[in-house]
Automatic annotation (TrEMBL):
Primary role: Allows the formation of correctly charged Asn-tRNA(Asn) or Gln-tRNA(Gln) through the transamidation of misacylated Asp-tRNA(Asn) or Glu-tRNA(Gln) in organisms which lack either or both of asparaginyl-tRNA or glutaminyl-tRNA synthetases. The reaction takes place in the presence of glutamine and ATP through an activated phospho-Asp-tRNA(Asn) or phospho-Glu-tRNA(Gln).
InterPro entries per the UniProt record, alphabetical: Asp/Glu-ADT_sf_sub_c (IPR036113), GatC (IPR003837)
Pfam family, one: GatC
Catalytic activity: L-glutamyl-tRNA(Gln) + L-glutamine + ATP + H2O = L-glutaminyl-tRNA(Gln) + L-glutamate + ADP + phosphate + H(+); L-aspartyl-tRNA(Asn) + L-glutamine + ATP + H2O = L-asparaginyl-tRNA(Asn) + L-glutamate + ADP + phosphate + 2 H(+)
UniProt similarity note: Belongs to the GatC family.
Protein name listed in UniProt: Aspartyl/glutamyl-tRNA(Asn/Gln) amidotransferase subunit C
Species, as recorded: Microlunatus soli
The keyword Disulfide bond belongs to this UniProt entry's keyword annotation: no
Lineage top rank: taxon: Bacteria
């Protein structure tokens, strides 16, 4: 199945990419080759092969959301260059009002 220049131009419009006539001539055979390779992969994958998004099995790597001991407010602020009213004091930015 060979893609025509018109089909490639339509794909470009869908992707909101403006393509020159030279680019259409250049891209049509390349996209055709990509589609041929995808068809070959589809032929190899049988009905017994489950579709996957990753070649290796993935599992949730996040830890359980359980309460744990943490720093007190004073401990957290102990390393701050400047603290004020129990918070980190940072320079004002973008001329914001206090």
């Amino acid at each position: 199945m060979a893609l025509s220049r018109e089909e490639v131009a339509a794909l470009g419009r869908l992707a909101r990419i403006e393509l020159s006539p030279e680019e259409l001539e250049h891209l049509a055979p390349q996209l055709d080759q990509i589609l041929e390779h995808v068809a070959q992969v589809s032929e190899v994958a049988g009905a017994d092969v489950q579709p996957t998004s990753h070649p290796l099995p993935l599992s949730n790597v996040f830890r359980a959301d359980e309460p744990r001991p943490c720093l007190t407010q004073d401990e957290a602020l102990s390393g701050a260059p400047v603290a004020q009213d129990g918070r980190f004091r940072v320079p004002r930015i973008l001329g914001e009002e206090a």
